[in-house]
Amino acid sequence: MIAFDNISASYDGVHQAVADVSFTIDKPAIIGIIGPNGAGKSTFIKSALNLIEGSGTTTVDGQSLQKRKKEVAYVEQKSDIDYTFPITVGECVSLGLYPKKRFFQRITKEDWHKVDHALELVQMKDFKDRQIGELSGGQFQRILIARTFVQDATFIFLDEPFVGIDATSEQIIMELLNGFKKEGKEIFIVHHDLSKVERYFDELVILNKELIAQGPTDEVFTKTNLKQAFGDTIFVGGGQSND
To answer: How far apart are CA 153 and CA 99, in angstroms?
Structure first.
């Protein structure tokens, strides 16, 4: 179980980005975080995970996040990552092993087998020795998901993982994430394509600087909540809201 209590953050100490967001997820699920541009979706995650300065608390099974941080994986937006960094695909995936390593502890042969298995799952094993800068956007996103797999985190946070990737990569990632859920994990995804909300998410968090609604997707993905978050001009292309 992970609980967020009054998560707040501002851009510069003055302009509020997200205010007093509180909710709890107490079972394995894929949770979508949606809202308009500037709604504070990414800021909420970063503040909740203590990646930026903010207020409020995040607890895991009643313990502070600091005590359970090895159980948390975070994948930032691809646009925030330096593709030119000289690292291979295999080395990038292996970074997911370090949170559970002791200082200066080396990666073992068994660890590299885990890396190979993760690359097989995302159908990227043949790319193991390539530089990450040679990958397409979809291929690179698969590598980031493989990195969370080897980390074996219970709580996974993905910030806009489907932006700028191909349909094949998106399908592979969603299949893998559904497998993670069956293993008992809770996966949070900042997402913008409302047409896929009902297919992708068990639970939904709707934000616009403050919490608009949170709960099972079939209960909170409604016109009323969407209008409150996005305004009266909201149009769900290809999707169906529940009222």
So the answer is: 10
Amino acid identity, position 142: R
Q: Which CATH number do you get for residue 206? A: 3.40.50.300
Residue 178 lies in a domain: yes
Alpha-helix runs per DSSP H in 2-129? 41-48, 89-94, 109-121
Cα 50 from Cα 22, distance rounded (Å)? 15
Q: Count of domains in the chain?
A: 1
Q: Is residue 136 part of a domain?
A: no
Question: pLDDT by residue for the chain (243 residues), tens digit each?
Answer: 999 999 999 877 678 899 999 999 999 999 999 999 989 999 999 999 999 999 999 999 999 998 998 899 999 886 667 777 889 999 999 998 887 776 667 878 898 999 999 999 999 999 999 999 999 989 999 999 999 999 989 999 999 999 889 999 999 999 999 999 999 999 999 999 999 999 999 999 999 999 999 999 999 999 999 999 998 766 544 444 555
Tokens (6 digits) for 194: 């409302």
Is residue 137 a part of any domain in this protein?
A: no
Strand (E) or helix (H) holding 205: strand 203-208
Contact 206/178 with Cβ under 8 angstroms? no
As to burial, measured by CB atoms within 10 angstroms (0-12 exposed, 13-18 middle, 19+ buried), residue 214 is: buried
Residue 120 lies in a domain: no
